[in-house]
Each structure stands twice: as C-alpha cells, then as structure tokens.
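Format notes (please read before filing issues)

Several people have asked whether sequences and structure tokens are stored in separate files. They are not. Every record keeps both together, in the order shown below: the sequence lines, then the token lines. Line labels are part of the format and must not be stripped during preprocessing.
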Amino acid sequence: MSASETGAHAGATGAEDPGPLLRLVHRQEVAFAVVGGFNTALGMGLTVMWLAILGDSVPPAAAVALAYAISIVIAFALHRTLVFRVHGHAVRDFVRFVGVNSGGLLMNMALLSLAVSVLHLPSKPSAVVVMGLVAIASYFGHRYISFRRAPVPPPPSAGSGAEQF
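Then the structure lines:
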C-alpha cells in the first residue's frame, strides 16, 4: 500500500498501520462494507439462535434485542481493529459507536416512512435504497464521530529552530 493510501486511512482516525483487512482490500470503504456484511449475517444468525433457545414463551423482540446486544459489541471491535484501526478511548468510542448506530436506525425509520407514507413509493425497493443511504451515512458517522482522532502533528525537523530556546 502506498504512503498516500495509508494516509487516506489515517486522516480522520489517526491510524497509521492499515492492518490485514485494509492491506487486502486497499479501501477503508470496502473494509467497512465487508465488516458490515459480516455483522449483518452474524445478527441474523444470532436472532435465529435466540429464537430457537427462547422458544415461544418469550416475545420475538427479546431475541432481536439479545442478538443486537452481542452483535454491536462484535461490530464495534471489528470496525475499531480492522477498519478504522484506532487505539485508546475505547469507552468513548463505544458510546459514540452506539450513538451513530442509533442515529442510523432513526434515519432508516424516518426515511423509509417518508418514502412509503409521504412519497407513496413501493416499500421493498425503498427499504433497499434507504438502507444503502444509511450505510453510507454510517460509514461517515463512524469515521468522523465514533473513531475520530485528532491529527498527530509531524515531529519538528532538524534545523527548524524548534529546539532553540
């Protein structure tokens, strides 16, 4: 990976080492989609597993909540280590991550309601388009909110006068 590509990853998040996934796919956006796709499949699998474990005695929403509670922690860890490559501030990052995800849920609900109820568009294609828009917004939310790091200033170069007092 070239220095300019690595720099693109370091921009908002401060990551210097692209890590194995970014070395493989070369684009943070693609890595985000890969991790998101994995997490979506994981969430589906966990939901089905909890439905089977809990049975009919518990409302299905409980299975969704349990799956979400597990998958958001895994999604956070994977995005933090494989996509945005940041260190430190884990609790702050997690709170922001949950906030961005919650904002995505609200955005999804609002845009889908607007598309179907106000604009009278068909629900299934609208849901797909809205989910795509929310995924893009989530990428930028996680890049610039959840995992944002202040830029690291370059060390002073020799002869810059910085060492003279």
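For reference, the curators noted about this record: The longest helix spans residues 90-118. Residues 86 and 128 are 31 Å apart (CA to CA).
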